[in-house]
């Protein structure tokens, strides 16, 4: 066998039950069913004399955060959003995403200065389904990696 590490160690593979999403105060947002963050790079293209190949250089990046929230009660998020619609002063939130490892190591990322972006569900109701609210945020500060996930040797 050439690959003796087999993608790290499959015994340490994590699932959604090992993840958590917190507000800035470290309070677990217990009704969040899923969350996802991603970065989108926008490079600048250029070409130079004597070279037929097009090149790119780093230009800008954007970080987006989405979450799906099960509607149990009208929590602070929807209250702050509805107030913002009336006052036209948009809310800003900080979040923490966490993934707990089998050996109690933790990957924790902090997302600061998040504002609503794109479509946000106010009410999303259909017969026979759990009522959920989809949130989309733009992250205005670079995410901060607080701790790393690891495996035992």
Secondary structure layout:
Layout: E1 19-23, E2 32-46, E3 55-70, H1 76-87, E4 93-100, E5 106-116, E6 132-139, E7 144-147
Antiparallel strand pairs: 1-4, 2-3, 3-6, 4-5, 5-6, 5-7
Percent strand: 35-45%
Give helix % range.
under 10%
Distance between the termini: 19 Å
Category by helix and strand content: mainly beta
Provide the residue-averaged pLDDT.
90
Unreliable segments (pLDDT under 50, ≥5 consecutive)?
none
- Biggest β-sheet: count, sense, barrel? 7 strands, antiparallel
**Count of DSSP E strands?**
7
So what's the overall shape? globular
Total DSSP helices: 1
- SSE arrangement, N to C: EEEHEEEE
Please tell me how large the radius of gyration is. Answer: 20 Å
Name the descriptors.
single chain, 153 residues, mainly beta, 7-stranded antiparallel beta sheet, 1 helix, 7 strands
Please provide a brief summary of the model.
This protein has 153 residues and is mostly beta strands. It has one helix and seven strands, in the order E-E-E-H-E-E-E-E.
What does this protein look like?
- This protein is mainly β and 153 residues long.
- The protein contains one helix and seven strands.
- The chain has one helix at residues 76-87; strands at 19-23, 32-46, 55-70, 93-100, 106-116, 132-139, 144-147.
- Strands 1, 2, 3, 4, 5, 6 and 7 form a seven-stranded antiparallel β-sheet that branches.
- A hairpin with a 5-residue loop joins strand 4 (93-100) and strand 5 (106-116).
- The chain is globular, with a radius of gyration of 20 Å.
- The model has no long low-confidence stretch (mean pLDDT 90).
């Amino acid at each position: 066998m050439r690959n003796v590490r087999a993608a790290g160690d499959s015994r340490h593979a994590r699932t959604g039950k090992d993840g958590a999403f917190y507000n800035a105060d470290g309070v677990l947002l217990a009704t969040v069913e899923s969350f996802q963050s991603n970065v989108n790079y926008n490079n600048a293209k250029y070409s130079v004399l004597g070279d037929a190949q097009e090149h790119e250089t780093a230009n800008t990046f954007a970080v987006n955060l989405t979450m799906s929230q099960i509607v149990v009660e009208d929590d602070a998020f929807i209250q702050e959003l509805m107030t913002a619609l009336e006052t036209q002063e948009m809310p800003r939130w900080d979040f923490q995403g966490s993934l707990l490892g089998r050996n109690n190591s933790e990957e924790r990322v902090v997302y600061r200065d998040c504002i609503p972006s794109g479509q946000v569900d106010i009410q999303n109701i259909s017969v026979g389904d759990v009522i959920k609210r989809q949130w989309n945020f733009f992250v205005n500060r670079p995410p901060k990696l607080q701790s790393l996930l690891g495996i035992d040797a």
